[in-house]
Design brief:
With 121 residues, the chain is of the alpha/beta class. It has five helices and four strands; from the N terminus they run βααβαβαβα.
């Protein structure tokens, strides 16, 4: 609707809780629902390198890994070889929990007009 790329950010630790295949299915559903939108998915793997590898194998675009730097460097190389990315920290995101109108909050955020502080996503 706004013509801006969208990053679907998983909850913290989602790689362990829901698994990368479930998350990737959600991203795929969003892409089917909005085929003209540039939708990217980022799954939080905490410090579990095995979850990063599973996420990359499942086709997740971005994995978030907060583990050791030497392991992160190797995982980043693996991700890059497959056209994917590894992030050391979660990107900022609007806090949707408890929002009166989450859709409006997302539209404002994507349009660059969110004045509210961001919270843990």
């Amino acid at each position: 609707m706004l013509g801006v790329p969208v990053l679907l950010l998983s909850p913290r630790g989602a790689a362990a809780a829901m698994g990368p295949l479930m998350f990737q299915a959600m991203v795929a559903a969003a892409r089917r629902a909005e085929p003209e939108a540039a939708v990217t998915g980022a799954i939080d793997c905490e410090d579990a390198e095995g979850h990063v590898l599973l996420a990359l194998r499942a086709g997740v675009d971005v994995a978030i890994f907060k583990g050791a730097a030497d392991v992160a460097a190797k995982l980043a190389a693996i991700a890059a070889a497959g056209g994917r990315r590894l992030l050391p920290e979660r990107p900022s995101a609007p806090a949707l929990a408890g929002a009166r109108d989450p859709a409006a909050l997302c539209r404002d955020w994507l349009a660059g007009g969110v004045a509210q502080s961001t919270g843990p996503a």
